[in-house]
Amino acid sequence: MKLLEYQAKQRFAAAGIAVPPGRLARSPEEAAAAARELGRLAVKAQVPIGGRGKAGGIAVVDTPEEAHREAARILAMDIRGYPVRSVWCETGLEIAAELYLGITLDRDRRRLVMIFSASGGMEIEQVAVEAPERIAKLWPDPFSGPLPFEVRRLAFAGLAHAPHVGGQAAKLVNALVTTATRLYTVATALDALTCEINPLVLTPEGSLVAADGKLEIDENAHFRHADVAAELARDEMGDDGRTGDDPFEAEARRRGLTYVHLDGDVGCIGNGAGLTMNTLDLVKQHGGDPANFLDIGGGASAERVRNALEMVLLDPKVRGVFINVFGGITRGDEVARGIIAARDQLHITKPLVVRMTGTMEEEGRRLLQEAGIVPGKNATDAAAAIVALTREPAP
Amino acid sequence: MSVLVDRDSRVLIQGMTGREGSFHTAQMRAFGTNVVAGVSPGKGGTNQDGVPIFDTVADAVAATDADVSGIFVPPAFAADAIMESAVAGVALTVCITEGIPVLDMIRAREVVQRYGQRLLGANCPGIVTPEQCKVGIIPNHINRPGPVGIVGRSGTLTYEVIQGLGEAGLGQTTSVGIGGDPVMGLSFSDVLALFAADADTRAVVLIGEIGGSDEESAAAWIRETGFDKPVVAFISGRTAPPGKRMGHAGAIISGNTGTAQSKVQALAAAGAAIADTIEDVVRLTADGLPPRYR
Lengths: 395, 294
Known about the structure:
- The structure holds two protein chains of two kinds.
- By secondary structure, chain A is an alpha+beta fold.
- Chain A is built from 14 helices and 18 strands.
- Chain A has helices spanning about 5-15, 30-40, 65-75, 125-130, 150-160, 165, 170-190, 225-235, 245-255, 275-285, 300-315, 330-345, 360-370, 380-390, and strands at about 20-25, 40-45, 60, 80, 80-85, 85-90, 95-105, 110-115, 135-140, 190-200, 210, 215, 260, 265-270, 290-295, 320-325, 350-355, 375.
- The radius of gyration of chain A is 26 Å and the shape is elongated.
- Chain B is of the alpha/beta class.
- Chain B folds into two domains: about 10-120, Rossmann fold (3-Layer(aba) Sandwich), CATH 3.40.50; about 145-295, Rossmann fold, CATH 3.40.50.
- Helix content of chain B is about 35%, strand content about 20%.
- In chain B, strand 8 (about 125-130) and strand 9 (about 135) form a beta hairpin.
- In chain B, helix 3 (about 75-85) packs parallel to helix 4 and helix 7 runs parallel beside helix 8 (about 260-270).
- Chain B is globular and about 55 Å long.
- The mean pLDDT of chain B is about 95.
């Protein structure tokens, strides 16, 4: 669940982090009104994806007329598949320096990491490659959070290689301790796995202001943040309602299926994430192109198989489907009956290849064979079979 | 021999009276696991199929000397269950639950570590030492004793490997699922270190997948320690696009980290044999074993 810039900034402001005054506008008229009220403005597209500046989604305007014109232009845009539904109009900042402050998950350390750099305004990954000495990191204790002395050390380390702001280090460090501590509070309160201010602007007066905001909430923690989900849904910008999202993935979410849409033409269904990934890999190894990833999870019930098959076949590019199920304690004959019933109910005429194991798997294979569905002896043979079947010219 | 669990393991199940917990407890007992206690707050003093239920893990440990816990509680409560187990002195906690918030897992893992205990998972299929002890949800009938140690992130793919090896007459010392979450307890290299110390483990199959860099860390560990048992590595997700979560919360390529290619390269450079299919895993494992095991 990704928040939009203005939603992230609302959370930052509530935690006491300074943000520029701004107004949300859903129409050129609202943008013009914001300009009349606030004066010189940055008009910024609200989309849950980076790179909007390069795409032309940000404009600086001096007058209400300009605000109207630029907002109209930006609101008509589609940025990397995301239609712009609103713009955030905020007052411009006097900039002495652009810094970076972010919190994200460090999988190797199995902790959150707080990252500070005096080289803000560009992608932190790029700084990490080009000037790694300019990046300072802190892995706070998950129970105490970052302690002031730790943040000071982080700040001094990040400023050590930044002569352009180094002169103000003493003053800046105290402001950074406050901002970083507050940002950590926001991140942990919201279960954010990405919580970033880039750039964090240092003004000529020496204060720190969040000029941008990125917040992404852990999918596993959505149950604790129903309010945020509701807000995103209301905005029609959330993961569930936004247009511009892959329509097949949106449909799969509605059906409660774990599905990733890909570019190929061989539908793939498996149980378990690793097994399903391997199913795609096998199709590719045999010269096919997977159309999707669909994990039906443990316990392959007939209804789940039907739902999954229907989902995969919604994609008109799909020429055939490979179902790869490790039965475990499931009975192979039951899985086979489920698949046959699904095929008959859904009137599927495209080739299906099923590879399954489990108790009664011989009986399952016989049932499939009789119903005209190709049973694979093992996953490798089954992958070869579906690729061969989907390579044949369409009748 | 084996790693982590054996016939002397005394197992308690947190969430034993729930739907998943009760079904899999029955399966574990049918396997021969010595399940000595269940924990369900509020149901202490009752029993389920003759296994006594306690309100707290501390009570269960005091009464039964349980030293392994299997967790089947819902995601919102699972991290708390992990910490309760570790603090009560349970040496190994195996968390099956999928969908635990990452920040909860960071804290739970920290507590387990501070108390000097071990955690498997979460979001893992558990652990099996054939004919001795199973904690988790790995199907009973596929396991047979033998010289191969298995460690994997994915459940079903681990089952596939166990079954594939079994069909070729190759059994396991212990099969260990470390789980598919981004923050987990024991890592690949932690489990490799256990296999290194187990004389009966003559070869190891490592089942990795995209996301994170635990496979790369395992490769570095193999090189640094001179781990001399044959390793067969099987990495899934070669066709996965960047930025998409492939089922497991941890199976995502972020930027340039976590690609299958990087993992395959690192493991190959560390001397592991790379398998593309289950059939390859079986063949390469047989090739790596001393002749008397084939």
